[in-house]
Amino acid sequence: MALYPVIMAGGSGTRFWPLSRQARPKQFLPLASKHPLLTDTALRLKGLAPVKNTFIVCGPVHAKTALKLVKGLPKGNLLVEPVARNTAPAIALAALQVAARDPRGILAVLPSDHHVADVKGFQRTLAEAARIAEGGHIVTLGIKPARPETGYGYIQVGDALEGGGRSVKAFKEKPDLKTAQEYLAGGDYLWNGGIFVFRADVMLEAFQKHMPEMQKGLDALQKAAGKRTFPAVLKRVFPKLPSISIDYGVMEKAENIAVLDGDFGWSDVGSFAAIPEVRPADAQGNVVSGDAVLVDCTNCVVLGDKRTLSVVGMHDVVVVDSGDAVLVVPKDRSQDVRKVVEALKAKKRLKLL
């Protein structure tokens, strides 16, 4: 059983502006450790799969950076999307590449910008998911919820399956607070962590069955796989594929889905408010990076650059200095930072994007 990790390194990370920019988005930033999130993702796979089996999916702007951040990654394992078409076409592209090498090879699709505190626990869970996937299931990892979270999708789980894992009753969109509280109290809901494990041939069959509109394009890519013409075919075909997530395209329709509980200190590092989940805080609950002086502050996130940041009498606030821009936002409004990016786009402040 060979495992082929596929790290999804697209995305713009607008909730982390001004640190996250178009040329260097969230997944390339050292938000949770001294390494960029992408590098951390690759490092936690050590021992599960060799680097030669690892693939990275990203856009053309980020290809060189991604290659530098994952040491030993073969250049041919960098799958460059000509345009962003959401996760279903990206996963289909990866499944085709793995199937050309190993039709029954097992893919583990992983976001590049998440954090895992318990790496050994994560590896055990992923290995178990691969074992279940070998039997023909498409496995998704559900994260044990720690709080009534409105920023994540949920998976309603069913009965235990004979081969391992549990059945899926339903995938749920991001809920309001009342609904999230009900999910937590019910005990049969997990966070949707966006991690999928499956055999290459099983997923390609699922695309054929549930997304037949993609099949003509996938057939063309499959015929060109390993040939000189592949880049040209990819450039021509990929933009015509439907822009749809794997959740909508396959996961909500397929019957051979299994969910495996994950409890390994997971965080999607979704906004600056999540930084205290992945970085140590001082006695006052403040997370500080760079040259900063805090007076009478509690539960703040202060991330500096070269200038000294002075923060006085603030509570539950995020202060970020990127050198050319400063952000100040209440921690509970961190999700709205993306609106700053929208405003900058509207004003054509392109140098700040």
TrEMBL record:
<feature type="domain" description="MannoseP isomerase/GMP-like beta-helix">
    <location>
        <begin position="290"/>
        <end position="344"/>
    </location>
</feature>
<dbReference type="InterPro" id="IPR049577">
    <property type="entry name" value="GMPP_N"/>
</dbReference>
<protein>
    <submittedName>
        <fullName>Mannose-1-phosphate guanylyltransferase</fullName>
    </submittedName>
</protein>
<dbReference type="Pfam" id="PF00483">
    <property type="entry name" value="NTP_transferase"/>
</dbReference>
<keyword id="KW-0548">Nucleotidyltransferase</keyword>
<dbReference type="InterPro" id="IPR029044">
    <property type="entry name" value="Nucleotide-diphossugar_trans"/>
</dbReference>
<dbReference type="InterPro" id="IPR005835">
    <property type="entry name" value="NTP_transferase_dom"/>
</dbReference>
<dbReference type="InterPro" id="IPR051161">
    <property type="entry name" value="Mannose-6P_isomerase_type2"/>
</dbReference>
<dbReference type="GO" id="GO:0016779">
    <property type="term" value="F:nucleotidyltransferase activity"/>
</dbReference>
<keyword id="KW-0808">Transferase</keyword>
<dbReference type="Pfam" id="PF22640">
    <property type="entry name" value="ManC_GMP_beta-helix"/>
</dbReference>
<dbReference type="InterPro" id="IPR054566">
    <property type="entry name" value="ManC/GMP-like_b-helix"/>
</dbReference>
<feature type="domain" description="Nucleotidyl transferase">
    <location>
        <begin position="5"/>
        <end position="283"/>
    </location>
</feature>
